[in-house]
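Bench notes, bay 3.
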Amino acid sequence: MSMEISTNAGNTFDGVSVMVTEAKSRICGRKRGKMVHKYMITARMAVQGKTGGGILYMLPDIVMKVVYLVPVMYIWRILAESGYEVEMSAVQLLSYTYVNALLTDMMIVNTYLSAWDYDTKSMEMFTRPMSVFGQVISRTMGEWVPMLCLFSLPMFLAAPFLGIRILPKTLWVIPSLVLSVSLGFAFEFLFYCVTVRLRNISWLTYVIRSAVVSFFSGTVIPFKILPFGMDRWMNYQPFGSMGGAFLSLYVGSADALEVIPAQLFWNVVIWIAAVVWFRKSRERMVSFGG
């Protein structure tokens, strides 16, 4: 009789434990759902902020992208026809530049952190009950949407009529793009820490940073056409795992076995450095009355 009672008690206890576990799982699921919803709302607000002035408000940006794209592609055509020996074909060079123009915002990530810290706009993120990293990422990705719809998508569809090979050489470009964007955000937080430390010259820091990253990421000039074998070491520096790595994989001038491991390595290293330095910089900013 006592054994039956203990068995029933054990079964009851197990049942209660299962119910408690399920309840905790439901609560955690609801919290995660609410958090994702907050980030989605932040992204939607960013989209509205970009399109609030109407489509014509974005026309100058679209024109500037076309103005950049046309002469650069013309230069690559002339370079290919001149007989100059490079490790990339004319088709690859044109596709490289074309895709870079379509995905410019993703190739070199720019957020309001390093660009507008001098105007105290970045301080807003500390007043909301959300993760700072999540706020920045969701807001930035929301700001990408209008240009992707109004410029990138139409240009992607028009590429075959312009003689541009637009389809990627391998499906490895999908994880490569994710890793490239992730690394871009990590660098963005690192450079924000620099602007916190150099409070009075944040705009100069932003300009120098833009120039350095544009060159060393390989988005403006492909590493494969650099002289003196510079591409051998440029591929392995941290900026080389950003947009240039994805574009090289996209056009088939690089191997996934070389690109993906390097991107994974630099993502781990730079994100750890970004998180640690960001926490220290946040304390420094508050201590100075930020």
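Next record in the batch:
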Amino acid sequence: MNKQAISNEKVILVSESDFDSTVLQSEVPVFVDFYADWCGPCNMIAPTIEALSEEYTGKVKFVNQQLAMKYDILSIPTSMLFENGIVKDSLIGAYPASAYRERIDHALGPRSFETGTSTARQ
């Protein structure tokens, strides 16, 4: 299944030419899914990435990117979480939504309703 065929406007396909403006200069954290259309595991996690993009609307930007030599991507799928233009976290391989969610939540920090209370990791 072609990832572009199931993409919606919440997951943006970026090219090498607009990567800097879309990802590195973003004011919100950006979850980048490095993939290839021929990659089975990449296609397997596509629905998970789509669902997470809806869950984190307005908090995290989600983008798809074909292989990028700039970040020495050797295995796909590789997911990287960028914040202020810097890679804050990465995962190589296909994982359940909970693994991606844990890393995104960690990058976002405590939620507004948690302020004033001690938050312990579960």
